[in-house]
Amino acid sequence: MEERADDPRVWRAPSIIDVAREAGVSAQTVSRVANGMDIVRPTTRDKVLAAMDRLGYRPNSAARALKSGRFRTLGVIMSGLSSYGNMRTLEAIANEAAKEGYSLTLTPLWTIAKAGFSGAFARLADQAVDGVLVVLEAHELHESDLERVAGMPTVVVTAGDSHPYPSIDIDQTQGARLATEHLLELGHDTVWHIRGPEDSYSADDRAASWAATLRAHGREVPPVIPGDWSTASGYAAGRQLAADPTVTAVFAANDEMALGAMRALREAGRGVPESVSVVGFDNMGMAADFQPPLTTVHQFFDRVGTAAVGMLIDQIEHRRRTPPGLVGTALVTRASTAPPPATQPPR
């Protein structure tokens, strides 16, 4: 049997007319209260608000947006949703947006080729957002890919500096320097590096800083060992490094690769840190539970997400463009690092 629109079994959202009837006022008065106008007497406003609560009425945000020109919605274009850093950043973005009274519309970007980015931006524009946060890091993103955002408030997170838009990022250079210097200060002659993917800005910055730190200390720069952020690639790199008895210190560009490398080293009879010290990057929640607990670089993803939302809202509400910013890192020292074997104190 077909259900009629006026059938009481068919739920519908309460309307402004329903609220007016419940409160005993005109629909125009309800509209004024819903839009925060101060020309309604306090006793009448209280009566209307009470009626809204009883009926579960919510003002039509789309209609208010047409009047104000604001949708109270931020768009997010993000690649690599499965990565630890991006998920932590997205969590911080969502929390800060909610705190500031904005909702989010997320568009995952499975490919960051130009057509993919353009399509993602077009979808967000159709959904009426006030501004866009672009969370990408791969090299395929160029200034031409961001041409569509002209006139739209935009902040770019961790996507290099080849664009003219306000941006915020982790200080990758500082983090890699801290990791490398820690191992040198323990007495290791040099540090080997398992880098991230070739198309990653973050991996580029960490590898460049590792090499620059070694040169600044007058140390040999070993060949880079390629990786792809995965535990499997770290394991393959660890097997390669374990075969070289001169290797005593390894800096992996993320914690997952460090985990894989430590497993390969142990399997080859190279104890961590008795034979080889290992440092990671990220400080994942489980890093302290690795065996041994992992020395790593802590990235403040929460600060990045919070700052990105603040920068975007500054553009939307105050037309103010914040200069590019960097969020610092911190070295977290645990049991995976020690002096090299020849200099370790007797146990």
From TrEMBL:
InterPro entries: HTH_LacI (IPR000843), LacI/GalR-like_sensor (IPR046335), Lambda_DNA-bd_dom_sf (IPR010982), Peripla_BP_I (IPR028082). Keywords: DNA-binding, Transcription, Transcription regulation. This is LacI family transcriptional regulator. Residues 14-68 form the HTH lacI-type domain. Pfam families: LacI, Peripla_BP_3.
